[in-house]
Amino acid sequence: MSRLDVMEKPVQQADRVENSPVKVEAFVRLFNEMPVSDLVANLTTRVETFEVAGRTYPLTLNDASEAPNCYICCPSGAYIDYAIDETRNFAAHPWLRRALRALIGACAPLVRASGLDHQVQVNNWLYSTNPVPRLDRQTVAELRSALVARFPDRAIVIRSLNEIADPASIAALKAEGFRMLAARQIYIFADRSAAPAMTKNLKRDRKQLGATHLMRVGNADFAEADYARAEELYNMLYLEKYTPLNPHYRARYIAEMHRRGIISLAGLRRPGGELVAVTGLFENGGTLTQPIVGYDTGLPLGEGLYRMVMAMGQDHATARGLFFNMSAGAAGFKRLRGAIAAIEYNAVFAGHLQRRRQLAIRIMEAVLARVGIPLLRRFEL
């Protein structure tokens, strides 16, 4: 028995993520056939296929000179720009909001010194949440060696690891020299082996979905005009209500991802009319994410559009027995519907880079662990 085998045994983890080679290839082909900005308006990146230990991953390449860039490929965008924007959640605590903005500003030179924007990112599906296939120490060692040899000047990054889905992978990554940078708090609708307990809020959501005057739109029912409307609805929620720093997925992206079978779509429309709510579901092996959600924010809250499209996601997960990563945001809403909070991490390897970059990353790891995680948990963000 090898040392690697011994080291990986203490933590068990189900492999809920498949990364179908066919789906990976379809995704990579899309981003090589069309200009990236035609698909995600605020993103610059290059997309390739990466294979290691019998597993296929989408891989993205980014240069520091491309910043500012969308945070899904740009850590300075995530840890500086997005973090400053997120302080809006502390509006009820103005003194704390000012202190946090000052702290983030003070840490900005540290983030830039880390050089993390000059990166190769493994398993980047260009979503805010990218479920990661199980990684053992042997795979991590092979992955690290291959990428260090090919990209000797780039940090190696893997996003979207969390304490509930990925304990064994996190342990293997740490053992092979990766640093864990806390990113955000997410919500997991985890055990789909049986029907979920029907909380008061879940019952209300499903009652509203069953009684609505709106027409349900299935995956096969989307017409060409619906893609442009889906972009509008996504923009209303994620770019206008939340922040323009979120990925700006264009109609062409939604259409091509749907046509190529990478995501499925569902929604609600006025009888005989246009969509008023939409969701895109990404099913990867036994894991579900919901990277696209949008609704007409101009309609009355009583319509319950957000509740209904989120219920569609939960129903999809329950019907198929899927582990549902509900991502970040709307914390109270998700908790009331049975989701469990977990800290999400970005795994970073920089052992081959300049010492000053390594030191900056170690300091980032410590600050995020000692300040960031307690704040996320304390305020249930």
TrEMBL record:
Keywords carried by this UniProt record: Acyltransferase, Transferase
Domain of life (superkingdom): Bacteria
Name the UniProt record assigns to this protein: GNAT family N-acetyltransferase
Enzyme class: transferase
EC nos: 2.3.1.-
Stored Pfam families: Acetyltransf_6
GO molecular function per UniProt: acyltransferase activity
Domain (BioF2-like acetyltransferase) ranges: 200-335
